[in-house]
Amino acid sequence: MDCIFCKIIAAEIPCFRLYEDEDTLAFMDINPASEGHALVIPKEHFPDVHVVSDAAIASTVVTAKKIASAINKTLNPDGMNLLQCNGPAAAQSVLHFHMHVLPRRDGDELKLNWGLAPGDMDAIGELAERIRENL
Ligand code: 5GP
Ligand code: ZN
What we know:
HIT family, subunit A, binds guanosine-5'-monophosphate, single chain, 3 helices, alpha+beta, 19% strand
């Protein structure tokens, strides 16, 4: 299947991995909308919220909570969004169900359709290591 997140799960393409269990994987977003932007996905492929299984969405939310807590300890942001997008109008660009863990800063004025701009891979890798230490 031509799904970038399934390829990440299969380790066919690399990622800055934060956490993995039997059902879910968490890793850094390489086009971060904010410092510490991470993604959590079920290992089973479902395109969106309309078809994801109850078990897969439940395990993804539990992992997102764990990741949010570790990012909070690492970066102490002013706030955090857990966000999930479905369909082009909602700016879903990868058709494998996922949750964004988005640390926020006062006044950052982050727009929900934030656009994709590549991050600094060295900085993202270093931050992933710091977040893993807080898991
Ligand atoms: P969506 O727009 O579908 O809600 O979010 C998809 C996210 O996946 C985007 O924030 C985008 O930066 C991220 N993304 C796309 N391709 C890759 C990739 O190859 N590796 C990683 N780590 N993130 C990706
Ligand atoms: Zn997939």
